[in-house]
Design goal:
Layout (H helix, E strand, L loop, with lengths): L1 H14 L17 E4 L5 E7 L5 E9 L2 E11 L5 E6 L5 E9 L2 E5 L8 E7 L2 E7 L7 E7 L3
Length: about 150
């Protein structure tokens, strides 16, 4: 009987999740919306879905044609995990390494490029930076709310 009670206590301890360990499904609410580059050639759209998943896509247009697209998903884990599907391939997973009120950085040192992805809000703008893990070969993106 003691073994049975001990097993139940152990099982309960393994399956319970404290509020501190549970993901905050609203933590990235500042990321949601439709964002575009100043030129309108790049658009990134993020939405919150059931269960705390954030789904996004990015489209790059040139001369009225789509020249690049990417689907994205952020899983509501501790830490959150960014999953990239460039041109429909993937996923490539990037766990969050830093997170603040309006900033998040994901990294995967084993990925070719990018290895680090950072998003942050700058007032009404959304900024993004991709780079190698050591911040080499940076690419920056400045977005404003979509006009249409």
């Amino acid at each position: 009987m003691i073994r049975f009670v001990w097993s139940l206590a152990l099982l309960a301890g393994c399956t319970s999740v404290s509020a501190a360990d549970a993901p905050d499904h609203q933590a990235l609410h500042w990321l949601t919306g439709c964002w575009q580059s100043d030129s309108g050639g790049t658009r990134e759209v993020w939405s919150l879905s059931e269960g705390g998943y954030y789904f996004g896509y990015s489209v790059v247009m040139q001369d009225g044609q789509v020249v690049f697209f990417e689907q994205m998903r952020i899983d509501p884990a501790r830490p959150p995990v960014f999953n990239a599907y460039p041109a429909g391939s993937g996923p490539s997973a990037f766990p969050a390494i830093e997170m603040g009120d309006q900033t998040i950085t994901f990294a995967n040192a084993n990925h070719d490029y990018p290895q680090k992805i950072r998003y942050w809000r700058d007032g009404e703008a959304l900024r993004a930076k991709i780079s190698l893990i050591d911040d080499g070969q940076p690419g920056t993106f400045d977005f404003v709310a979509c006009s249409e």
